[in-house]
Design goal:
The chain has about 375 residues and is α+β, with helices and mostly antiparallel strands. It has eight helices and eight strands, in the order E-E-E-E-E-E-E-E-H-H-H-H-H-H-H-H. Strand 3 and strand 4 form a beta hairpin.
Length: about 375
Amino acid sequence: MATTLHPIVYWAQTEDNISLKVDLRDTSDPDIDVTAEGLYFKAFGVGAGGLHEYEFQMDFYRNVNPDRSAYRVMDRAVEFNLTKDGPALFWPRLTRDDPKPAWLRIDFDKWKSEDDSDEEDEEAVMKKEQEEQMRQIEKELLETKEQDDESAFADLKTVYLFFFNLLQFIGYAYVVVYLFCRYAFYGKENMKEAFDRAIIPLGICQMFAFLEILHPLIGLVKTGIMAPLMQVVGRNVLLFLVILPNPEVQSDPMVCYLFLVWSSVEVFRYPFYMAGVIDYSSEVLTWLRYTVWIPLYPLGFFSEAIVIFLSIPFYDDTGKFSLSLPNQYNISFYFPYWLYAHIAIIVCLAPSLISHMWRQRQRRFRPKKPRTFHVKLN
């Protein structure tokens, strides 16, 4: 058996009249019967339960005058204006039965009461105050939930950035310690073995360094994108397209020197970022972050250019990555020319990156101007 749906009905009163508003939109086929003792309503429309047939019946607390009562069907509701029968007075409630139905509510916009209000008037005022308090509580809970969500996201971001920088530091620190100890104990002997031991952690760190381009794009960090883009792309192109495919250059000491320079820069950069993530300020880390690069950046650019230059004979002899005519694409590409161009790009971009780092250092260590006070003498 289908459950009968009741529409929400709002009511208000004056001394002479009762007003009802049936909250039902797009009403069709209404069946309405107003008698002195009560009201019957049935119609199709869009109410709280969607598009359905809604029905209700109520017996009034006192009689009304059906001949002097009226209703009108509108797009958004069905409204009734019922005239009370008998002496003008306020009813303590609308329906004969108490308590009132759950779907019957007070229309506070139209409600009027006597100064000496009865229990129903007092209940209405208290109900209105309670609803206002509930709305305030709901608003506060919503604001608290939003703050909790923001706090949870901030905590998750802090944990992620801290461990990202920590793992990057560990990887680069391993390369620095290993290569430094290798040079200290064995010098330039068996550089291919040194390369094989260093390339795996260095390659992993360089791959994860691409995330440093993504972080500012998605708002995880408030830094520019151009500096990490140029550095990460430049290093990875050199590492994965020039050094790894060339077994001859891997035995050259200059490659391990380059790895040592790259890793030395990062060993001081990532601890500075880790401290910033947890809002820890260290003058030593700050000074190292903005000072160690001064000798290492020029040495790194110089080492990159030398490694590329040493790789050109291999790609010239083997034709690797080059494309000669005739071929199905009808184009030619000579990879050594691109390597010469890469050296030119390094020469052109190096001053820009060095200048960027120098400006950052000046902003960080710029002395604060003393505050001056002007006293006006009469």
